[in-house]
């Protein structure tokens, strides 16, 4: 079975290149339409009801987010294509939606299409609503993060997270209600994602939410006592940065 794909891209050369690459190297999909403007994209997506949409972010005028906000048909997996790595990309990552940086890398394209196809086959819901919610948050406000588990997907506000703990290739999230969520991603990926939102990696195995630190114990190398009473060791290499961040913390 082939899945219908749609391309939203305001530059003709990029549209044709992506269509050609998809036709040659992504046998699971068929590009059934393309659009160059926001109004055209909204009209065509609602009419064609594609399974996958390749969405340019920066368009003239408007953005791909304008398209997502106004389409009635949202039952598709979206793959963003963009030349920019900025705030919007962080919102996309939090929502666990795939994106490809331009110029398009063939391997990244194939991986993104494969993920989208697998999500459709598992009847996995898209994350467009979560993305739009995160984009509407002013910088510094509380995001929600999408966590894929063996049982499905959980959407968790950052304010509920106390700490993260590594266990090999897995990461466990410890939440305020004593709930734990294990995901099959390593801690490094979340370090990059959460560092601008009040989280700090104090140890190879631990990332903590600085607002959830209740006490600092200086003996035995140093520990942070968290709001769930857990005691998290602080690496000597991280201690100065940790103390500086705690001194700046506003509660």
From TrEMBL:
Biological processes annotated in GO: regulation of DNA-templated transcription
A Pfam family it matches: LytTR
GO molecular function: phosphorelay response regulator activity; transcription cis-regulatory region binding
Name of the featured protein: Two component transcriptional regulator, LytTR family
Coiled coil: none
Keywords, alphabetical: DNA-binding, Phosphoprotein
Residues with the 4-aspartylphosphate modification: 56
């Amino acid at each position: 079975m082939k899945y219908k794909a749609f391309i939203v891209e305001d530059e003709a050369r990029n549209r044709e290149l992506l269509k050609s690459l998809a036709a040659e190297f992504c046998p699971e999909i068929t590009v059934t339409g393309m659009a160059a403007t926001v109004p055209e994209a909204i009209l065509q997506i609602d009419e064609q009801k594609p399974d996958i949409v390749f969405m340019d972010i920066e368009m003239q005028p408007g953005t791909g987010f304008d398209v997502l906000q106004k389409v009635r048909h949202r039952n598709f997996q979206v793959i963003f294509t963009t030349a920019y790595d900025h705030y919007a990309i962080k919102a996309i990552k939090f929502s666990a939606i795939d994106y490809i940086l331009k110029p398009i890398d063939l391997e990244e394209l194939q991986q993104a299409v494969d993920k989208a196809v697998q999500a459709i086959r598992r009847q996995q819901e898209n994350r467009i609503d979560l993305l739009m919610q995160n984009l509407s948050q002013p910088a510094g406000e509380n995001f929600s993060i999408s966590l894929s588990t063996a049982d499905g997907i959980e959407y968790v506000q950052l304010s509920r997270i106390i700490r993260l703990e590594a266990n090999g290739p897995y990461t466990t999230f410890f939440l305020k209600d004593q709930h734990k969520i294990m995901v099959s991603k390593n801690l490094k990926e979340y370090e990059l994602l959460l560092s601008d939102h009040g989280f700090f990696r104090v140890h190879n195995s631990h990332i903590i939410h600085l607002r959830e630190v209740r006490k600092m114990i200086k003996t035995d190398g140093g520990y942070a006592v968290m709001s769930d009473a857990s005691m998290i060791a602080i690496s000597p290499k991280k201690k100065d940065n940790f103390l500086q961040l705690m001194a700046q913390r506003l509660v």
